[in-house]
Write a structure and sequence with these properties.
heterodimer; A: 282 residues; alpha+beta; Alpha-Beta Plaits; 2 domains; four-stranded antiparallel β-sheet; 9 helices; 4 strands; B: 219 residues; alpha/beta; six-stranded mixed β-sheet; globular; binds adenosine-5'-diphosphate; binds magnesium ion
Chain lengths: 282, 219
């Protein structure tokens, strides 16, 4: 009974008091969209960095006479090596042709295949540093049948540094966004309290229990939060579409974003309405 | 029915609103609380429905010592007391009928019983034909009647009226006072606060006069 009336009252305020409802819905949507947008950028940044990170590898060129299988198993024994891929000289040429896409010319220039066979050495995450690369590569150089190794070296440390800086900025930005969102939502709640003070005063006067007063407000808060989350999600989808046209490849795990937006909206709604109510129902 | 024993109310910063007030009101009485603005009349009424708590002294309402009434049981007390104000305190976005029904829903009365009770009260106050009107479509006197209806649908034991005629012209004021007297005649205890001594004297009922925050006379 109380729940039924509570929900009806909640709907009433949504439909009748709508200018204020839409204002706070707007604020919630924009706030959640900001958080969502931040998450999209962050996720993509780290996704991109992790792709770069995984590309860190050592290439070892072999003597023509070397036994690739034996070398491969010896390299795999080195601490920090994840995988070794054999690239034959034929394969190397094919790769080059694909990259250049000018098959005829390349074939014409070289009578013989000048590319040596090589091993691409994939590393475990902990070894993907300048120091790790150097250590592993010097161990590989000691093996019989290896002509030369090449690797990123300094570039790798540069990447780590950039990742660090980005992380610091990212966290800083997150703190700023969270504080502004809380501030803005709090101001909106204050406005709502002000608009409703007479209503709550009358409810208390005629002997409404605290829960009777709380139900419509909480219901309204939840509806607003979930609606706001949905709008923020739609805005994020649109942003993603626009971003795709610029960057072609955008990482967007949409179900997680939908879930995150709805959850945040729900939590904002509940917390917001309880803060608003606590002022009245101490 | 209502007992005040040496009640003192001090708002923050030593601001005394009421000092050492003692009186007793029996069931079925009609009592004016009279005194100039700032005397403490509204405070006295607020103490009765526990909107405020006394700094000192004992208050008993309907055989209950309010000091021991837990916060969560205040709604139970308020359901037995009707209160009306100078500014009516109606919900502007609800019709007359919805404003009145509101106070029944709060107590969980079934819609059927609510409708029956409401019909009865609205007919008594001659408001039935306006039940779909919003407060802004009603005159001051009519709005005060809606507030009275909202209080009456729950058959209160006590009706508290804080300057109920303060915003009304002479004719409507008389209407409201006649209604309050009639409600009292039917058995409800009525307390009416007013600063208007002439009005209070015209109706020959008991009058508690408060001056300088103290009980000045009781006759
Ligand atoms: N909530 C409050 N906080 C502080 N002072 C108050 C409050 N309510 C009333 N007062 C003061 O208490 C005194 C009595 O006020 P009130 O009971 O409203 O008088 P009346 O209704 O007779 O005009 C006044 O001086 C008023 O300023
Ligand atoms: Mg007053």
């Amino acid at each position: 009974m109380a729940l039924r009336i509570g929900i009806r009252e909640g709907f009433r305020t949504i439909t009748r008091n709508n200018s204020l409802f839409f204002l706070s819905l707007l604020v919630t949507s924009i706030s959640l969209f900001l958080v969502s947008l931040f998450a999209l950028v962050t996720v993509n940044l780290y996704h991109f960095l992790s792709i770069l990170d995984e590309k860190i590898e050592i290439i070892a060129f072999m003597d023509e006479s070397a036994d690739s299988e034996a070398l491969k198993s010896n390299i795999l024994k080195i601490n920090g090596v994840k995988d070794v891929i054999f690239v034959s000289s034929d394969q190397a040429l094919k790769n080059l042709q694909e990259e250049l896409k000018e098959t005829e010319e390349v074939l014409m220039v070289f009578e013989d295949n000048p590319l040596p066979a090589s091993l691409r050495i994939k590393l475990e995450a902990k070894s993907r540093t300048a120091k790790g690369l150097e250590e592993i590569s010097s161990k590989i150089m000691l093996l019989r049948g290896i002509k030369e190794t090449i690797y990123g070296g300094e570039l790798v440390d540069q990447l780590k540094k950039i990742t660090h800086v980005i992380t610091v900025f990212d966290i800083g930005l997150l703190v700023i966004i969270i504080f502004s969102v809380i501030f803005v939502i709090f101001q909106t709640i204050k406005l709502t309290i002000f608009a409703r003070s007479t209503e709550i005063e009358i409810m208390k006067l005629v002997g409404a229990s605290n829960s009777f007063i709380a139900i419509p407000f909480t219901f309204e808060g939840i509806v607003q939060g979930i609606l706001g989350g949905s709008i923020a999600f739609i805005l994020t989808i649109i942003t993603n579409r626009v971003a795709i046209s610029f960057f072609s490849n955008v990482y967007f795990p949409q179900w997680w974003f939908l879930l995150g937006n709805l959850m945040c909206g729900f939590i904002f709604g509940i917390i917001g309405s309880s803060i608003a109510l606590r002022k009245f129902l101490q | 029915m209502i007992t005040f024993e040496n009640v003192t109310k001090v708002y923050q910063k030593d601001w005394v609103a009421l000092q050492d007030i003692t009186f007793f009101i029996e069931k079925g009485e009609f009592v004016f609380i009279n005194g100039p603005t700032g005397a403490g009349k509204s405070t006295l009424l607020k103490l009765i429905y526990k909107e405020e708590e006394p700094t000192k002294g004992t208050i008993k309402v309907l055989d209950e010592n309010l000091r021991f009434l837990k916060k969560k049981h205040i709604p139970r007390l308020r359901r037995k007391i009707g209160v009306i104000f100078q500014d009516f305190k109606l919900l502007q976005d609800r019709t007359l009928e919805e404003n009145v029904a509101f106070s029944l829903e709060v107590t969980g009365t079934s819609p059927r019983d609510s409708r029956k009770k409401m019909m009865e009260i609205l007919t008594y106050l001659r408001l039935s034909h306006k039940k779909f009107s919003y407060p802004y479509q009603l005159s001051g006197g009519e709005q005060q009647k809606v507030a009275i209806a909202r209080a009456l649908v729950r058959d209160p034991y006590i009706l508290l009226a804080d300057e109920p005629t303060g915003n009304l012209d002479v004719g409507s004021s008389q209407d409201i006072i006649d209604i309050l007297l009639d409600i009292n005649y039917k058995g409800t205890t009525v307390l009416m606060a007013t600063h208007d001594l002439k009005l209070a004297k015209k109706v020959k009922k008991r009058m508690l006069r408060i001056e300088n925050n103290k009980l000045f006379s009781d006759k």
